[in-house]
Amino acid sequence: MADALSTLLKTRDWLMADGATGTNLFNMGLSSGDAPELWNADEPEKIKALYSGAVNAGSDIFLTNSFGGNASRLKLHQAESRVRELNRLAAALGRDVADASGRTVVVAGSVGPTGDIMAPMGSLTHELAVEMFHEQAEGLKEGGADVLWLETISAPEEYKAAAEAFALANMPWCGTMSFDTAGRTMMGVTSEAMVSMVEKLPNPPLAYGANCGVGASDLLRTVLGFAAQGVERPIIAKGNAGIPKYEDGHIHYDGTPDLMGEYAVMARDCGATIIGGCCGTMPEHLEKMHEALANRPRGERPTLEKIAEVLGGFSSASDGTGEDGGPKRSRGGRRRRD
User: What is the pLDDT of residues 91-130, one digit of tens each?
Assistant: First the structure.
């Protein structure tokens, strides 16, 4: 039976995903250091409001509030025994919102990294990673998620473990990595290497790509790296709303809604099919992104110079795959879906 995302991909040449989770929840009162996943049980109406904000802005796909919903991360909050429950609730709340929307909206079960380092560099074995991802996947499946959505991954070993776990759960999936260290993931993966890895998986994702990282410019350079490999699998672009700045005790992202509208159409022109935002991306950003995608015609593939001109310079001279010599601007970022 065809899943909802595959059906949409067959009928549309672009789909819009959602924006930030953490930024929106902090604005609703979540305290720094608290586990957002606990709100699936304690503040369900606020989680529904989070999902509805994306749907009302035009998103075709939204991610569930389950990014840190694995046993390793929940153990930090003495909630490792609640993995299945909290993930089921995350997806069930999303199912309610999607089913009430009056159109096809995909509930994507968010699965973030375990937070542990994979062996041999760290203590997390492949078998344990598969077990943790599988437990989370089964909870999201029980709650009614249409697809599983692996995101913000740095290590190829963790990506592969999740793919194996999702096969055990018999669920379709998508998977993104975060390229935030001179065009590479924290563990050194380039866009080219990711494509090679994805295409060799026994259980490949429906779509793959990049999320978070440094800023929109860097993310689009990575998307161009994916597209250059010539793979027909749909590409995902979920960039941050600008660059984080610390102001008055809070992290603020400087990307305006209009800038994110420019980012969205450039992401499409770079070769992305599924386009959304990550840290700092609010409903007002999504509205401008949807408006731009719906009303502006597809253009030529932008050059690095054009991306830098419109969205700002790159954080490094190279994307890690060759001598591209793109414009440079020094800046920093985080990998969490804030």
Answer: 999 999 999 999 999 999 999 999 999 989 999 999 999 9
Question: Which residue, among 239, 243, 315, 313, has the nearest Cα to 270 in the 3D structure?
Answer: 239
Each residue's pLDDT tens digit, 185-237: 999 999 999 999 999 999 999 999 999 998 899 999 999 999 999 999 999 99
Which stretches does DSSP call E strand in 214-287? 235-239, 244-247, 250-253, 274-277
23 against 168, higher pLDDT: 168
* DSSP-derived secondary structure letter, 206: S
Q: How far apart are CA 196 and CA 16, in angstroms?
A: 25
Give the pLDDT of residue 2. 67
Q: Is 321 helix (H, G, I), strand (E, B) or coil?
A: coil
What percentage of the chain exceeds 70 in pLDDT? 94
What number of other Cβ atoms are within 10 A of residue 321's Cβ? 17
Q: Which two tokens stand for residue 62?
A: 């939204």
Length of the chain: 338
Q: Exposure string (b/e) for 228-261, b if CB count within 10 Å is 16 or more? A: ebeeebbbbbbbbbbbbeeeeeebebebebebbb
Question: Which residues face 328 on adjacent strands?
Answer: 314
CB atoms within 10 A of CB 161: 26
pTM: predicted TM-score of the whole model, two decimal places:
0.94
Tell me the two tokens of residue 55.
């749907």
First-to-last C-alpha distance (Å) of the chain: 34
Q: Is the pLDDT of residue 260 over 90?
A: yes
Strand pairing report for 274-277 and 15-16: parallel
- Is the Cβ–Cβ distance between 206 and 6 less than 8 Å? yes
Spatial distance between the Cα atoms of 128 and 130, rounded to a whole number of angstroms: 5
Q: Which two tokens stand for residue 29?
A: 């009162």
Q: Strands 250-253 and 244-247: what pairing?
A: antiparallel
- C-alpha span between 76 and 294 (Å, rounded): 42
Q: Which amino acid is at 255?
A: G
- What mean pLDDT value characterizes the chain? 93
